[in-house]
């Protein structure tokens, strides 16, 4: 896959990368990245010599039909791990176990602390469960990663990708050995996650928003829905107004005629 997909991506988009020297030649490490685009999971592995394993939502592996089978084959081919995100806490535990297994094999594990793609290009608050618990359970170093301009290559609704150069910055590894054995302390999980997000912010130059991206997406969806309903109500009101004016216009001559007739009747002796 590195030769085919990875080679094609590097040839077509020519991504620039800084900090490759921070990625260990062997042994486990966690790549904690911001998440701007679906293509992040392709550009990052493409510029590395080692395999990177991300977790992917289970729908990519279970969608029926020819397209679904091709998608599942692709994600299996690039070594992605399916995780059912509909199971609440159980899904989170499955993701954590998957990450630990990858690192225990001495491999690279990729994770997006924000939990979902940024809805507007800003950096959102990291979720403290997955990244922090995997890091503390394995002792693996955490490398902050900044994907840059990947969201501009194929914005939502655009079918054909835009040919431009995205960037990737990989920061120096962070060691959280001082927190070893404290993976059940929620304050430690929060502190570790915030430290990683701060390093990602410095690398990416993004504006930081201290709310979860999932919450912002809900707010944007609700605002869009409210806007559509308001527009629909406005159109209906405008339509009703036009209809009322038309009916008034039709009644006008008839009323005038009746008034005129009544006036003639009253003028007769």
Shape: elongated
Helices and strands, in order, run as HEEHEHHEHEEHEEHEH
For the biggest β-sheet, the strand order reads 1-8-7-2-5-3-4
Overall average pLDDT = 85
Strand content: 5-15%
How helix-rich are the residues, as a percent range? 40-55%
Assign the structural class, choosing from mainly alpha, mainly beta, alpha/beta, alpha+beta, or little secondary structure.
Answer: alpha/beta
State the low-pLDDT regions, or none: 264-269
Number of DSSP helices?
8
* Main β-sheet description: 7 strands, mixed
What is the gyration radius calculated from CA atoms?
Answer: 29 Å
Report the count of strand segments.
Answer: 9
The N- to C-terminal Cα distance equals 104 Å
Would you kindly provide a written description of the structure presented here, covering whatever features stand out?
The protein has eight helices and nine strands. It has helices at residues 2-13, 40-46, 59-62, 65-77, 89-104, 130-138, 186-204, 213-267, and strands at 16-18, 29-33, 52-57, 81-83, 108-111, 123-124, 142-148, 167-170, 208-209. The longest helix has 55 residues, at 213-267.
């Amino acid at each position: 896959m590195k030769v085919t997909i990875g080679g094609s991506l590097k040839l077509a988009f020519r991504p620039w990368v800084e900090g490759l020297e921070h990625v260990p030649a062997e042994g486990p490490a966690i790549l904690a990245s911001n998440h701007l685009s679906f293509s992040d999971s392709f550009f990052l592995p493409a510029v590395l010599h080692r395999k990177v394993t991300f977790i992917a939502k289970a729908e990519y592996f279970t969608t029926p039909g020819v397209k679904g089978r091709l998608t599942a084959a692709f994600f299996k081919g690039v070594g992605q791990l399916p995780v059912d995100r509909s199971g609440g806490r159980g899904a989170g535990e499955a993701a954590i176990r998957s990450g630990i297994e990858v690192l225990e094999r001495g491999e690279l594990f990729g994770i997006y602390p924000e939990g979902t793609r940024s809805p507007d290009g800003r950096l959102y608050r990291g979720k403290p469960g997955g990244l922090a618990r995997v890091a503390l359970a394995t002792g693996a170093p955490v490398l902050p990663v900044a994907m840059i301009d990947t969201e501009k290559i194929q914005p939502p609704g655009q079918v054909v990708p835009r040919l431009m150069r995205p960037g990737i910055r990989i920061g120096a590894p962070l060691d959280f050995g001082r927190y070893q054995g404290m993976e059940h302390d929620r304050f430690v999980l929060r502190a570790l996650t915030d430290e990683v997000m701060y390093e990602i912010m410095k690398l990416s130059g993004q504006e930081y928003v201290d709310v979860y991206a999932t919450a912002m997406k809900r707010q944007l969806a609700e605002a869009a829905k409210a806007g559509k309903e308001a527009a629909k109500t406005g159109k209906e009101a405008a339509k009703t107004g036009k209809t009322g004016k038309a009916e008034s216009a039709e009644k006008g001559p008839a009323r005038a005629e009746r008034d005129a007739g009544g006036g003639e009747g009253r003028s007769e002796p």
